[in-house]
Amino acid sequence: MDSLISADFWQLTVNGLVRGSFYAALGAGLALVLGVTHRFHFAYALTYTFAPYAAFLAMDRQGIPFWPAALVGLAGAVVLSVLIELLVYRPVAARAGDRAMLAVLVTSIGVSTAGIAALQLIAGSTGLPFYGPTMTIHEWGPVQLSNFELYEVLTCVGLVVAIAAFLAFTPLGRQVKAVRSNPGLAGLLGIGVTRVSVTVFAIAGLVSGACALWYGLLYTVEPVMGDKVVIYGFVVAFLAGTRTSPLRALPVGLGVGLLEQWSSMWVSVQWTQTAVFTVLVVYLVVLSGRGRWRRSVVPRPAPRARLKKA
Amino acid sequence: MWINYLVQALLLASLALSVNLLVGYAGQVSVAHAAFAGIGGYTVGYLTTARDWPFVATLVAAAVIAALVGVVIGLIALGLAEEFLILMTLAFSLAVIGIFATFDALGGVMGITNISGLSILGLSLETPRDWLAPAAVTLVLVFAVCWRIGESPYGRVLKGIREDTEATRSLGKNTFAYKIAIFAITAGMAGWVGALYSGWLGLATPTAFGFQLAMAVFAMVIVGGSANLVGSVVAAIALTMIEPVLRQVVGLQSSEAALWQLVIYGGLLVLMMIVRPQGLFAERFRHVAPPTGERVQVLGERTAPVVRDLDAHPVVLKAEGLGKRFGGIVAAKDLGLELRRGTITALVGPNGAGKTTAFNLLTGAVVPDSGSVLLDGEELVGRRPDEIVRAGLVRTYQDVRLLSRLSCLENVMLAVPDQHGEHLGRLFVPGRAVSRADHAVAEQAMEWLGFVGMADHAGVPADALSYGQSKLVSLSRALATRAPVLLLDEPASGVDSTWVETMLTMVDAVRAEGRTVCLVEHNLDVVRELADHTYFMELGEITASGTIAELTSSARLTEAYFGAQ
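Output (structure tokens, whole complex):
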């Protein structure tokens, strides 16, 4: 009995790490969007869902093999993400002025729901048979791990590290950081703010697409697959901080993944999601009590320039 | 079929109204309304199928439970910045649905699908036509409640919270109580509507109350117009009818029409947000009749500055030993000052000396680590900012902080204390007491606008004012609180010389009214003209005091202020 529990424990731990790296990558992508553009990018769920759908349609309707089709899906998610920023968020935020956050959130939910409905009109409302390479299961002692899970972890951790390296070591990455810390000043210094936001949305699209393709191979591709994922992404993004290194998403994402899996030892599986939200609520209650985050997260608009008489 | 869609439209319109009250009027960005409706729906589903409760009782239970959850959400929301509030309500929406799907008693992931045989007061609800009356009555009731709250002094405070919570608080409004109440009320209404919705559908399922419902209702609020209730109803009915039109006119299948409807909703939302973000029906402004008769000229010519004998004026406000550290930075150290009735005291010092922090400490915006502030012998430290205003100490802001989408008159009306219509209970007492009282408030506010010479601009939205004008309105707003002590943060900065002269006259007139003024000002000419007494601050400490002539004659202080010369 004892060994059974411990066997479960190790399997759950591995599952938690697999899930956690997935959440970490999604969170890092969202945190970048939130930190740099202040857009509540709910349509992350759409770019996430779009990638496997596009890949499926490429395979199913055009007869393209899996890997090129996956690339099509990935590229589709990137392009869609950038288009949403350029054609929807940007004009909406410009019109909304100081209420941009609400306006963008609402339109984002609208775009996401409408986009997913459109996908259903094209590909049907049921789950898709999304198959690619063959899955093999490896066993290490009590623990089972599929090659897909392994690749997913590598992809996700690789993406987070790549984003961090991009921000730290490339000129464009440094421009992204500059806009993140002070968009107004960065604009004055000649940094193209549009180029920066296109870059972060492209990265977000890439991350969501890559994660969704692996998820699709592991589980199912269905219209509602993005709903829960995007919220977990937000949770990780906020817990890790939206204006810090993406590497911080790794421990937070892994923590959320482990919490979710471990909690299934004590409560029924359906309650694991609730365990994660309980942690989030506790965090928010603490935050609410301190109530000092308003300025540290979204800087107040600068006071009107004062024209002092000499 | 059309009657069924009409019922749906009426119910969604009710939901849209409650969302508009929370999001459009109070500016609380919550996406949890579908979840609150879900709480209502599941309450009805469970209580009618498993517990055999009468339908009416379950409706009440649904509203009460949803309202209680709303209180909890409101409590957490109090100290949260906008994006954390959104995060919380998003997570809450998903969690609620997740929790429902967990319980076998609630049907698991399939939900409760056997709600039937309902009746209200003996009238059975079988056919779609039977549901028409309860849905219509609900819409009328919800509209009445939202209208009464939104278009009243209470609603004015909500709009103030939407525009600038801190500024509204510093006019003496208990914004905490308002926020919690509005979360509870709108959640309760959503619970009631959700309960009816489930009863009508015959089911309560996780998908019925998911993000699609949240989005549909948002689309109705946005297309109809934020903070416009009629717009929400019109948009709800128009948007709900898209699906039957697609089915009947275009000949689409039901499931396909539902998907097309979502696509159209999303498209409309984006289009509306870009083309006409205020919605089809814009927010209503209070109609203001232009001032009648000749202009009241309160102000005479300003006399030459008189230095008052301070001892003849009793101390109104006395601060002692105020200290505040932010981490390693000492923002205020052993701060002490006295304000005397009917005098003007100036606080001068170099940038970063802590003058605005001193105001923040006095008004409770920042809680001091140590020290005491006595106003007429009454301790202010430890009280909320809005209580301090009501106790008689009000401030203005350096960056003015008018509530930009409210008219000048509404800005000033908001500041009037003890308004009859700010009490929820009284809003629903029949009679015209609330509107009579509000007319009186408008008259008072008009007088204060007249006092600063801005009565002509009463109906103008605050964001259309020039900087100088907005400073005047902000002064009249502070005066309207009737607080005897005013802290004015740089009243004459950032305006040209004509305006400086106007401000001087105003502040002088405020003193002539018998009020006590403390001002932070960089323009030493202003201080010289006005101040009876001056404190000099450096690095969070008051290092000298006296008349401005005494201070400027000190070589050390001049150097500290202007730098080495």
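DSSP finds twelve helices and two strands in chain A.
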